[in-house]
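Homework help board

Subject: predicted structure for assignment chain

Our instructor gave us this sequence and asked us to write out the predicted structure in token form, then describe one feature. I got the tokens but I'm not sure how to describe them. Can anyone check?
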Amino acid sequence: MTNLFKVQGNELVAASAGRLSRESQIEDWVERNPALLGLDAMIIGRQVPTAHGKYIDLVAMDREGTIIIIELKKDKTARDIVGQVLDYASWIKTLSTADIYKIAEQYTSKHLTSAYSEYFNENIPEQLNSTHSMLIVASELDPSSRRIVEYLSEEHGVAINTAFFNVFEHDGGEWLTTDFLLDQAAVEERSERKVKAPWSGYYFVNAGIGEDRGWTDMVRYGFIGASGGSFYTKRLDQLKPGDKVFVYDKGNGYIGYGIVNQSKVRASEFSTENGPLFSQPLEQPNIKLNAEDSEIAEYVVGIDWSKTFDVSHAKRFKGAFANQNIVCKLRDQATIEFLIQAFEVNE
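My token output:
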């Protein structure tokens, strides 16, 4: 159970649990902003008809082409909703890439390649729906249904989870909180194992070297960064202290290996061994541009570098993994083996 308190002087004042005037509000909110459920995904359908005369509340697709079934509990009993979302998944599994295009284009009224590119700022994967996941949205779930969801996910690797919305009221205002029954990242990882190579434990990071940030600064002061809006900078949220990263320079190759020592902060708040980053002599002072604008400012993640190379000595081979993502999990075994040797990673 989630509780919400307001700090009022030296006291905590509890907010009372409220109710939504209509549950379809949640569907409206999620349709407009899937990030409410922690999803880096675009909605490609609402009230999507299945071949069995049923309608899926929302269908989303992430940047990997994974299809996400989002179903609201509404007035269904808890056990019914679990059975229903599994039924939807059995139908989604049969859909081809062409079927996904058709569903999405009916909803967006534009070609899916264009809609995807506008949303994710990268090219759409060639194959869609190689795997799928299910997300039940509810205000609560009874104990037996919780056990069913946990059993399916943890014992059988079924990509199913429940997201909870809670409404609180205090002093005439309303607050909304969201939470998951299971760790959503773990649910996605179990699902990915079925269609992707296992994750190596290493992350791929694009250096983004240019007029806004320089590799010399990143090496000297121990960071990697991104800017230009939350669409780009939110990818840095994946990196936590202890994570291992290989850094790539587009068009050249891999130039650094290190361990994350600090989670994402605004660059203006990042401290080096000699004080604030912005107080240091910088190769690319443009990193300070837009520092006061929280939306488009530069954000950085702290790195303890183990080994780095100048861009002119970047490491690569024909067929080495690379893509446009700021951050992603590195899975290509040939690339991993090459990098471990090139950067003398001893584990």
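Reply (TA_rk): Your tokens look well-formed. For the description, you could write something like this. The two ends are 41 Å apart (CA to CA). That's the kind of observation they're looking for.
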